[in-house]
Inverse folding.
């Protein structure tokens, strides 16, 4: 049975538990669990991080911990009973753990190997550190100090981690987290600010220390012991700053005592910040101990001398930048001249290199140097190891910047400066050594008191180093004499001088001595400075044993009496410098005189006067003695010396205000408390103080009086302590007298304070302005310190009375320049912080005074920083938990503050937040601080207010206007408090407290709003302010609990609940109260309320939904519709999405319906019950669709790079605004967003089309437009002009120059109409430059790709749709596919091209289907026109494309393994887009799919046609020398003749020429004939190609050529060709673009309904095919021998001008795929030719335009229906079964002289024409001349792609084969083709159509068959005149002569005029029409292509030539 647990409430999981049992709860090790019930070894409970999941788990897995239970019962909360630091550490580490794992994932995803500085690794280390420290705390074995240190380290690391991870700042007090409810808001703010400041600006340390560790001296020439001396040297003042640190090194250069670290390491202490500068150095002197000369041989002499070795220096400033742990290798320099040794360091510093050199190339001093910061105690804690292992302290010379009272020091430093010695009878100078001794009063040598420096212990004597042969040596050696104070008197120092002989004995001979006493007779020590000592001659040591004998002698030349000239004249002298650093001894005689005043009473006056001149450090040394002296004098002679003693006391008190001596204040305090004994002094002190105060007003010089007032704190201390001593001694006598004196003193003070300073004093008219002002200010600064002293002898109320009266006496107003106002506030601040104010009794007395002053300053907005400080201190004393019932005084205080300051607080916050922030950083920080402090004060005050306070506050307003102003003010302030910038980002605790106070206050104030401002008193402004505040309150980031971690969310909910829901309920309640006034907020509040619904809080949404229904209902009642609601809703949705509101969780809600209407159907149901339900449901549907698009847009915009997804999404949204919502302004905004995206992606063409959308909305008018987006205010004409120029510029950058030209012309027309010739000229020049670029610059033709997006996971605008995308330059299928997969990383690429089924459509995934497609150009008139350069045609091939084609091969029926061609069909898909490419996007959706099937026979025809065309093209290029080499032709010939893969043409013969096929497919008779004809044609082309090849083939390829010729004969035999037909025989290969004859009636029309199959099939004759290179072989064609190639002319180079192939894809040996077919694998469809193709067709060897590159083979470009004519419309081919009559009658081209010219003009066709398009006489330019002179490279032919069904439906009856149908583009005619104007006029190729048909294989006509021949002269002359673009016969003859070509062969054409064939009715032209005009200008043709409304496209059903649609009138642009 499960029993609720009593004490077992909380535990930690010891081991992970899987929870596999029934109701089991999975647990992870370390989880904390709350236990609810227990049963037989099992607990039931939940993990604290997920309280919703409850379950059971074994008891043995849980470690129980003590816990405190709150709210015992169902909703109980468990708080572990442990140290708060431990609790915080545990929860923080859990939060960090999750974030740390995410950091790892991010780090891994970036694939970057970062160093240890990476946050992931640093956080890892810190977490491990915290865990170690946590263990130490939990073990509990730490001392209190150590525990404090550990907790300090823990919290420091926790704060660091929180800051790095952008978590919240934790307010702490004494390492423990603070509960915001336990302290006032002002205290919380102070804590937060303190932690924030601590984090921002660490306070720089004022004290610094240098750690030095001597390691070794590296040198190869050692062998003697060394002494190394370090000291700090100031090169600016040329003096040492510290004593010396001394290290002894052995002969190897390492320290002699390595085990004693204190002898190797030292700390140079007490360096000030001023010492860390560049000219302060560490100087190292090295002395060797050994023989006199370094190079002397070792002799018998054992005496050793100290000799100079080297010096090194390093600047301290270098250590500031170096790594703190760096070791330094210092270079050691030796002195060039030994006599310069004393200044070698200066020479090195000043770089006087002539005086020193390197001691050796390998000599260096290895030392470790480190600067440490902070006081010495702090260092002892932080660097404990350093101090425990031992380090010597090297002191600074003199005292540090701050002298501490406990410091004990008595060091005398003597520097041996120099000496002057005589030779002493020697021929050379002496080697002088000084020995120093210290002797006591008895003449005994003092032991261990001579120290060379710190690091080594002191010795009994000190030996100087020796300078060789120098009678004027300079040592500059410093020694330290740490003699105790009590031994100073009578001691002296003796210096003995010896000559060191360098002879064998090496003895040292004494020749003199000097001495100096340490203390003078009067008790003064040896004065600091340089002393010239007398050298007394001495030769025997015995003479010095009795010191008394020589102490009577003079020691210094300065002390000699004037008559002792004998000694003064002695040349020998010795100089020393002494410096005493003592806290006990003085060198000042005046100080000694004062301290010994009783011995010399007559000097008291002088001594007191001279006290002010004594150095402060001397006074503080003897502070207690001095004070005793002063009060002793006062007690004995108060009348005589009272005033002077008082002045001296003031001087000493003010001396302690100096920062250097401020630490001596405690010494004085201790003296007053413990040592002061002047029980009678209070009378004199009060009397003198009152005397001074009374004279302030009259005094001319205030300085001295101000010094007195400045010292008033300590004067009162002495007064109070003196009175206490007196009362203690006398039992409280004279109490009334004392009180009376104090009252009189305060009366004088009040009188002096009450003086107003208005420029002159009432007493004297000569004083300056503010004469008392400064004195008053000085007193007020010290006055608060007096309160505590007065409380020692007066009651709290008495002291409060003193203070109130004193502060109340201050003048109300002060002079503007007087500093008194600021000081008043400072005094108030100290008063509020004093112990006096803390007491509630005195607080009641003082509060009105403080409030009065604050009120005055805040009203004038003066000294706000100080006001905020005072207010903060006041409110910090009012506790939150102080109950009104128990503390009525607190309630009264709150009343007083609210009444006085609440309004001012609001006003102040408003003013300071609306001010511009100051520029300086410090000022700005101060500005932010004061704002935060005032805000904290306001919050603290509001939090203290109760119902009673609010009632009193609201009742205090006398009028409604006042209440209205107050409410508006407080609502505005609350909005300011909610601003994100109000508090730093990580102050979540403070923000939550703020919000809690705001919502509480709003709940109180909403009642006042309801009662006072509803019904007839309704005030819109107040209500609007209220609703606006509520909305921004709910939308605050700090209240969006969903974005927080679970633990943080739980804490907030436990403490405050979800404040958003509370405020939402309040909004709902207030809205319901509005009644008919709701109409005032429609539609204004729609946007804000909608914003609230975007908050993902279900309860909040539930509350807000009825408000929307209400709005719609009221609007419906008022207007009969809710258009306003709809408009506002849509605008707001857009702006909210742009701000990125919402996240993935909303998407699922919005997919069905937008959040305000779902998932709760209440609104929808309510709407369905309304009369206006249809329009309501329509609104919901519209908004839902908009929301879907907006969500997609928002999600896309979150991504980094610009990609197709962003652009597509923007296009979708832009179109939605235009078509469905008609929101013009939003439409224009998104046009510009799309434009910016295109520019960023460098899609300049698309950017132009996009901006054109806006351009087309504008007119050429002068209407003024307002400023909008980035456009200035300007006229509509100016904006349109600017847009035109921008668009032209972008078209130029996108190489879309044709479109730019149209806009240039339009602009030019405008300039022309305004006679603005300057700009007109520029525009024409721009237009001309664009034409030049078209002709001169190369353009790349892009590839096009079809992309299908399948699955529900795609964004709405892509889901289950297919698009065609325009690829980037050089982008092939693989690259495009990879790009798409990068954009959609979760998508799966489909590996087939079949349409997906419904399972894919409905899948919860993303599927991409990608393959390449071929464009079908629309502008066929340009592409078919001869003479148009390829540069121009290339534009029309890939621009303004609506339709695209894709072929897929498949086998129908049984596949014949022997010959697969029999069943190989092609499925041809045509895709039509919603808009043409390029356009406003790189991709557009497919609008329509059409599918037809191509039969195997048609497929075979296409394959051979393409191969023939390719061969022709290569032959032409070869002849015209366009090819760099002949390899492409060689490979192509070889591939066709020597087919090695699929058997070549033989396979086609086997498949289609067999009897069975012919019998089974009678309808294919014509096609079979066509296939046979193409085979013969191919053989003939090959024959001619071999002839050309022979002419150009290089010598090394001759064998290959011979092999090809041999194989060609075999191939002809296999085809059964004995002799070429008549139409082939006459000339080898006739590449004329206008075949004359064509079999028209030989076979029935295969496309008639009679011949149609179930699935429409396309004949290759109705499909132009693609020219392509193929390595397919057409060999193995059985053939008989044919006659040799004949008829080659000398002009054969120019004969060919064929269209090059865009493809290298191979159908080897005419293999199974159609030339227009791709493989089914999309990845290989476009980009990867087969391996052999890659080798056979190298891109470098093929002279192809970019469009015709090898990889584009698989997708041929078909012809447009407007341009697709029968391929043999005028063909001279004739099947053998066709009779001559048939040929002449029905096939021959017609040229009737009687036919009017208009009848010969070819109309433009927009759809397939199968019946009556018989002749087209569109003669544009002379092909003969144009092609001959400049043969262009034709483009690949376009393709119409209309379905077979549409073809069949046009003409049901049988019809003749149209002479205009051709599946192969034409070739340029030979120059020999210019027989007559008539012939030319009837030649479709000569009329400029590149793709209207295939030329004849022969130059001759069918005249051989008809037996007729004509001459050019017989043709009617007038016909030539009617053809404006033809050339005359004369020119033809000229050209023929130049080219040596034979004349035309045909006589038939001269004698047989062609029979006119009537045009169809719809295409007929009136006979009286004007002659045909020249072709229109290009821009007239292209006008419509610029339009985005592509309804005007040329795809029209009629055959009427396309006329550009008139441009629609622009829409009105709402003043944009």
């Amino acid at each position: 049975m499960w029993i609720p647990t009593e004490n077992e409430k909380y535990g930690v999981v010891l081991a992970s538990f899987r929870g596999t049992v029934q109701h089991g709860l999975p647990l992870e090790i370390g989880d904390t669990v709350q236990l609810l019930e227990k049963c037989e070894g099992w607990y039931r409970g939940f993990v604290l991080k997920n309280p919703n999941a409850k379950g059971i788990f074994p008891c043995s897995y849980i470690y129980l911990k003590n816990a405190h239970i709150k709210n015992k019962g169902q909703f109980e909360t468990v708080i572990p009973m442990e140290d708060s630091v431990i609790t915080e550490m545990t929860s923080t580490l859990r939060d960090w753990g999750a974030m740390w794992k995410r950091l790892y994932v991010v780090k891994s995803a970036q694939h970057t190997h970062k160093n240890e500085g990476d946050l992931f690794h640093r956080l890892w280390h810190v977490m491990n550190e915290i865990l170690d420290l946590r263990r130490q705390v939990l073990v509990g074995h730490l001392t209190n100090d150590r525990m404090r240190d550990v907790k300090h380290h823990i919290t420091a690391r926790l704060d660091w981690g929180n800051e790095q991870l952008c978590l919240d700042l934790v307010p702490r007090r004494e390492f423990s987290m603070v509960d915001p409810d336990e302290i006032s808001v002002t205290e919380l703010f102070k804590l937060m600010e303190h932690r924030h400041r601590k984090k921002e600006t660490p306070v720089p340390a004022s004290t610094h220390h240098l750690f030095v560790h001597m390691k070794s001296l590296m040198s190869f020439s050692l062998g003697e012991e060394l002494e190394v001396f370090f000291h700090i040297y100031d090169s600016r003042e040329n003096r040492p700053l510290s004593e010396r640190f001394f290290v002894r090194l052995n002969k190897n250069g390492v320290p002699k005592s390595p085990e004693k670290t204190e002898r190797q390491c030292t700390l140079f202490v007490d360096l000030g910040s001023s010492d860390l500068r560049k000219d302060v150095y560490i100087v190292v002197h090295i002395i060797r101990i050994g023989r006199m000369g370094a190079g002397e041989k070792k002799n018998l002499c054992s005496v050793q001398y100290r000799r100079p070795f080297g010096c090194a220096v390093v600047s301290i400033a270098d250590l500031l930048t170096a790594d703190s742990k760096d070791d330094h290798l210092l270079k050691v320099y030796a002195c060039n001249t030994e006599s310069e040794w004393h200044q070698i360091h200066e020479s090195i510093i000043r770089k006087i290199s002539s005086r020193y050199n390197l001691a050796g190339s390998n000599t260096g001093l290895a030392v470790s140097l480190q600067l440490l910061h902070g006081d010495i105690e702090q260092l002892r804690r932080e660097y404990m190891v350093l101090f425990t292992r031992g380090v010597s302290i090297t002191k600074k010379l003199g005292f540090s910047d701050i002298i501490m009272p406990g410091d004990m020091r008595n060091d005398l430093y003597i520097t041996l400066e120099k000496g002057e010695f005589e030779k002493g009878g020697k021929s050379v100078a002496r080697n002088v050594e000084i020995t120093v001794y210290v002797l006591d009063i008895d003449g005994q040598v003092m032991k261990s008191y001579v120290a060379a420096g710190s690091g080594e212990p002191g010795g009994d004597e000190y030996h100087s180093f020796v300078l060789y042969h120098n009678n004027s040596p300079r040592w500059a050696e410093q020694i330290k004499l740490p003699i105790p104070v009590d031994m100073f008197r009578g001691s002296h120092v003796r210096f003995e001088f010896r000559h060191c002989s360098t002879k064998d004995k090496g003895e040292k001979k004494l020749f003199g001595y000097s001495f100096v006493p340490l203390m003078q007779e009067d008790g003064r020590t040896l004065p600091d400075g340089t002393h010239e000592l007398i050298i007394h001659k001495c030769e025997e040591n015995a003479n010095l044993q009795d010191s008394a004998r020589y102490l009577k002698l003079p020691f210094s030349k300065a002390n000699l009496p004037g008559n002792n000239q004998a000694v003064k004249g002695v040349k020998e002298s010795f100089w020393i410098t002494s410096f005493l650093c003592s806290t006990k001894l003085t060198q000042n005689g005046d100080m000694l005189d004062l301290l010994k005043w009783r011995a010399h009473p007559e000097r008291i006056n002088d001594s007191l006067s001279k006290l002010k001149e004594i150095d402060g450090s001397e006074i503080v040394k003897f502070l207690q003695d001095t004070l005793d002296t002063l009060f002793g004098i006062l007690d004995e002679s108060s009348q005589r010396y009272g005033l002077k003693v008082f002045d001296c006391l003031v001087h000493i008190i003010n001396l302690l205000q100096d920062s250097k001596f401020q630490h001596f204040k405690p010494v004085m305090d201790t003296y007053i408390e413990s040592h002061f004994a002047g029980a009678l002094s209070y009378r004199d002190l009060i009397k003198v103080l009152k005397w001074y105060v009374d004279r302030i007003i009259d005094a001319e010089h205030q300085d001295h009086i101000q010094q007195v007032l400045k010292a008033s704190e300590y004067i009162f201390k002495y007064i109070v302590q003196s009175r206490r001593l007196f009362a203690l001694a006398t039992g409280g006598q004279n109490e009334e007298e004392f009180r009376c004196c104090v009252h009189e003193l305060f009366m004088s003070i009040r009188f002096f304070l009450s003086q107003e300073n208005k420029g002159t004093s009432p007493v004297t008219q000569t004083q300056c302005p503010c004469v008392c002002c400064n004195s008053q200010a000085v007193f007020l600064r010290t006055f608060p310190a007096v309160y505590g002293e007065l409380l020692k002898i007066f009651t709290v109320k008495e002291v409060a009375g003193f203070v109130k009266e004193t502060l109340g006496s201050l003048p109300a107003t002060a002079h503007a320049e007087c500093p008194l106002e600021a000081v008043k506030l400072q005094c108030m601040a100290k008063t509020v912080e004093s112990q006096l104010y803390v007491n509630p009794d005195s607080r009641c007395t003082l509060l009105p005074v403080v409030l009065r002053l604050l009120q005055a300053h805040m009203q004038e907005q003066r000294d706000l920083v100080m006001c905020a400080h005072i207010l903060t201190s006041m409110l910090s004393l009012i506790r939150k938990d102080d109950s009104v019932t128990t503390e009525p005084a607190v309630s009264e205080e709150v009343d007083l503050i609210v009444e006085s300051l609440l309004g001012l607080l609001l006003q102040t916050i408003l003013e300071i937040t609306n001010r511009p922030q100051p520029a300086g950083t410090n000022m700005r920080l101060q500005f932010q601080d004061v704002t935060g402090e005032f805000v904290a004060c306001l919050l603290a005050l509001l939090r203290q207010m109760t119902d009673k306070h609010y009632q009193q506050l609201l009742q205090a307003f006398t009028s409604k206007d006042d209440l209205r102003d107050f409410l508006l003010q407080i609502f505005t302030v609350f909005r300011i408090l909610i601003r994100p910038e109000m508090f730093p980002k990580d102050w979540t605790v403070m923000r939550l407290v703020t919000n809690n106070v705001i919502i509480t206050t709003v709940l109180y104030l909403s009642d006042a709003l309801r009662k006072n401002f509803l019904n007839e008193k309704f005030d819109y402004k107040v209500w609007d302010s209220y609703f606006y505040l509520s909305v921004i309150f709910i939308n605050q980031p700090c209240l969006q609990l969903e974005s927080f971690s679970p633990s943080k969310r739980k804490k907030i909910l436990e403490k405050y609940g979800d404040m958003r829901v509370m405020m939402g309920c309040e909004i709902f309640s207030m809205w319901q109260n509005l009644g008919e006034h709701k109409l005032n907020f429609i539609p204004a509040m729609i946007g804000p309320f909608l914003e609230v619904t975007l908050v993902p809080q279900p309860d909040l949404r539930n509350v807000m939904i009825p408000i929307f229904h209400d709005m719609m209902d009221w609007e419906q009642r008022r207007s009969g519709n809710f258009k306003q609601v709809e408009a506002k809703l849509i605008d707001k949705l857009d702006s909210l999405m742009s701000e990125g509101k919402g996240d993935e969780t909303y998407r699922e809600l919005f997919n069905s319906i937008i959040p305000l209407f779902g998932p709760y159907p209440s609104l929808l149901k309510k709407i369905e019950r309304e009369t206006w339900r249809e329009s309501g449901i329509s609104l919901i549907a519209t908004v839902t669709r908009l929301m879907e698009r907006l969500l997609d847009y928002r999600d896309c915009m979150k991504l980094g790079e610009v990609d197709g997804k962003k652009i597509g999404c923007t296009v979708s949204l832009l179109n939605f605004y235009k078509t469905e919502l008609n929101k013009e302004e939003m439409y224009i905004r998104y046009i510009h967003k799309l434009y910016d995206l295109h520019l960023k992606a460098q899609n300049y063409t698309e950017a132009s089309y996009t901006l054109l959308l806006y351009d087309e909305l504008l007119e050429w008018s002068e209407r003024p437009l307002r400023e909008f987006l980035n456009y200035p205010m300007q006229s509509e004409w100016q904006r349109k002009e600017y847009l035109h120029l921008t668009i032209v510029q972008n078209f130029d950058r996108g190489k879309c120059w044709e479109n730019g030209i149209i806009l240039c012309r339009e602009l030019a027309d405008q300039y022309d109409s305004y006679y603005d010739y300057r700009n007109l000229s520029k525009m024409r020049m721009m237009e001309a430059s664009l034409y030049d670029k078209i002709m001169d610059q190369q353009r790349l033709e892009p590839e096009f790709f079809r992309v299908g997006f399948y699955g529900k996971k795609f964004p709405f605008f892509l889901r289950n749709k297919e698009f065609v995308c325009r690829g980037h330059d050089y982008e092939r299928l693989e690259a495009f596919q990879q790009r798409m997969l990068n954009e959609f990383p979760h998508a799966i690429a489909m590996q087939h091209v079949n349409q997906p089924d419904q399972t894919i459509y409905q899948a919860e995934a993303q599927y991409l289907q990608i393959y390449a497609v071929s464009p079908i150009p629309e502008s066929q008139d340009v592409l078919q026109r001869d003479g148009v350069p390829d540069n121009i045609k290339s534009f029309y091939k890939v621009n303004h494309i609506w339709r695209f084609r894709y072929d897929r091969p498949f086998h129908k029926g049984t596949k014949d393994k022997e010959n697969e061609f029999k069943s190989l069909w092609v499925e041809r898909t045509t895709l039509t887009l919603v808009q043409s490419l390029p356009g406003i996007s790189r991709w557009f959706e497919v609008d329509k799919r059409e599918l037809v099937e191509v039969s195997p026979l048609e497929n075979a025809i296409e394959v051979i046609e393409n191969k023939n065309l390719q061969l022709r093209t290569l032959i032409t290029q070869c002849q015209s020398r366009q090819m760099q080499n002949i390899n492409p032709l060689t490979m192509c010939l070889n591939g066709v003749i020597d087919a090695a893969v699929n058997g070549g043409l033989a396979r086609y013969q086997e498949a289609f020429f067999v009897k069975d096929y012919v019998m089974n497919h009678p309808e294919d008779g014509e096609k079979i004939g066509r296939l046979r004809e193409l085979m013969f044609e191919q053989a003939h082309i090959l024959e001619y190609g071999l002839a050309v090849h022979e002419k150009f083939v290089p010598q090394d390829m001759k064998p290959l050529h011979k092999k090809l010729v041999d194989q060609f004969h075999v191939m002809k035999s296999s085809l059964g060709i004995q002799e070429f037909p008549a139409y082939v025989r006459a000339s080898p290969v006739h590449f004329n673009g206008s075949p004359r004859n064509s079999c028209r009636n030989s076979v029935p029309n295969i496309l008639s309904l009679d011949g149609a199959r179930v699935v429409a099939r396309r004949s290759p004759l109705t499909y132009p095919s693609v020219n392509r290179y193929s390595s397919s072989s057409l060999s193995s064609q059985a053939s008989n021998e044919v006659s040799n190639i004949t008829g080659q002319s000398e002009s054969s180079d120019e004969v060919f001008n064929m269209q090059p192939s865009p493809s290298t894809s191979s159908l080897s040996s005419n293999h199974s795929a159609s030339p227009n077919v791709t493989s089914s694998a999309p990845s290989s469809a476009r980009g990867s030719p087969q391996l052999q193709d890659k080798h056979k067709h190298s891109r470098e060897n093929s002279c192809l335009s970019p469009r015709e590159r090898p990889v584009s083979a698989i997708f041929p470009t078909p012809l447009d229906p407007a341009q697709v004519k029968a391929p043999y419309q005028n063909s001279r081919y004739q099947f053998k079964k066709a009779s001559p009559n048939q040929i002449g009658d029905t096939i021959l081209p017609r040229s009737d002289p009687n036919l009017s010219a208009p009848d010969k003009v070819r109309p433009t066709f927009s759809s397939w024409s199968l019946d009556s398009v018989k002749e087209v006489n569109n003669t544009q330019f002379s092909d003969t001349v144009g092609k001959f002179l400049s043969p262009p490279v034709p483009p690949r032919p376009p393709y119409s792609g209309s379905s077979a069904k549409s073809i069949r439906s046009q003409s049901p009856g049988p019809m003749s084969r149209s002479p205009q149908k051709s599946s192969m583009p034409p070739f340029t005619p030979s120059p020999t083709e210019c027989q007559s104007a008539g012939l030319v006029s009837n030649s479709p190729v000569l009329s400029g159509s590149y793709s209207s048909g295939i030329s004849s294989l022969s130059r001759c006509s069918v005249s051989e068959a008809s037996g007729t021949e004509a001459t050019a002269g017989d043709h009617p002359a007038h016909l030539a005149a009617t053809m404006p673009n033809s050339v005359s016969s004369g020119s033809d003859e000229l050209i023929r002569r130049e080219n040596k070509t034979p004349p035309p062969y045909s006589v038939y054409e001269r004698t047989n005029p062609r029979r006119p064939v009537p045009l169809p009715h719809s295409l007929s032209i009136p006979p009286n029409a004007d002659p045909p005009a020249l072709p229109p200008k290009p821009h007239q043709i292209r006008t419509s292509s610029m339009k985005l409304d592509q309804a005007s496209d040329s795809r029209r059903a009629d055959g009427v030539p396309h006329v550009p649609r008139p441009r629609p009138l622009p829409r009105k642009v709402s003043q944009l």
User: Anything to note?
Assistant: Residues 1565-1592 form the longest helix (28 residues). The chain has 70 helices and 41 strands.
